[in-house]
Amino acid sequence: MKLQYLLLVSLTILLFNCKTDKLKPFIPKNHLESFQTEKSQFFDLDTLGFKKIIGKHGTQIIYHRDLFDLKETDTIQLELIELYDYNEILYRNIQTLTTDNKLLETSGVLKIVFTSNGKEIKLKKGEKLIVYPPKGKLKDNNIFLSKTDSLGNIKWDITNQDYNLFSIHLGGGIWADKIIKTDSIEYYRRMNIKTSGSETFNSYSSLAKNKENVDSFILDNINTNWVNIDKLVNINSNLNFELTSTSDEFSGFDIYVVYKNFASFIYYSRFKSELIFNDIPITEETFMIVLCQKNNEIFHDRLLLNNISNNSKISLNLKKISKEKLKSLF
User: Fold this and answer.
1) Which domains, ranges and CATH numbers included, belong to the chain?
2) pLDDT of the residue at 35
């Protein structure tokens, strides 16, 4: 009986060890998440009719209560996140790629969410929110809104910024600012002259669609996770290649393509059987950083893609790295 008991215990231990050594399924992970420092800023607007909201990094938002469809007693709160440090964008895994797979360089990412009674609220149809980022941020840039896929990966859609804030004469010496389309400027200019006999209130240098002069942008949809101030990156070439791994310890990888001297990166989460990459944008020094994890240990490889031939196969050389040294890879 004792012998049978010992055999049973030995078999149980053997089965347990086999089970714990089994390859774990791959779950994508943001290994850089713990490096984030920027937090949400909250502004209690209560039932105020108007307020200029100023974030700690200089973002200004022109808030009007009548932008929203609300009851008289409904209170409003704004959540604002300002990410003007590229590292903070990287640590949140907010990649810089358009929905048609063009590479962007970011000058800043914002999260702007208005809530009432604990629920996110939308702008009224036809209403627009005016946002002033810090000076110089809009130079040569466009405004993009995020699109998130089923895996949580972000890509970007460009917005229509063909609008201007224009002073319109209402009569009796009263002027009001109005958001109008750029192609309507001449019409309103003539109307102002007709009704007031003056162009005093119209500064055409600030209305010109010159990236040097633009200091604000306009949103007609704030029900998105992020707003991106970006420009397209000039690409030298596109690369196709395959990664291979002889290790049986990892079932998948978190992969970053990063660009030296550019505030740009692309993120991929791939199973071991899906390591073929097509049309990777290449410019100047372009690196691919491959991360994977076993238990609490992180492994990596870092490849200079400029040295890789098109349609080649590259064998991964995965090495252990500490959490503290992860930053140095990027």
Assistant:
1) 33-161+212-232 (2.60.220), 163-207 (no CATH), 237-320 (2.60.40)
2) 97
